[in-house]
Known about the structure:
Elements lengths: L10 E6 L16 H10 L2 E8 L4 E8 L3
Antiparallel strand pairs: 1-3, 2-3
Amino acid sequence: MAIYLKPDGRLILLEWKKKKDVEGPPFKDRISLQQMLYLAEKAYLKVERRKNLNSQHYLAIFSIAAS
């Protein structure tokens, strides 16, 4: 396992919601919050905060999960 985040560091992701819309990336290139959380868990990250920012975006903040 390679970790490139300091022990007290945070990873902040701002993403487009997985929905069809005229703005933003194509639907196939978007990732849902649920899928993002699943992938983060597999990468030994824990979610500290998640928030719907508006109708198009969500934010997720991660840190290193305790082993």
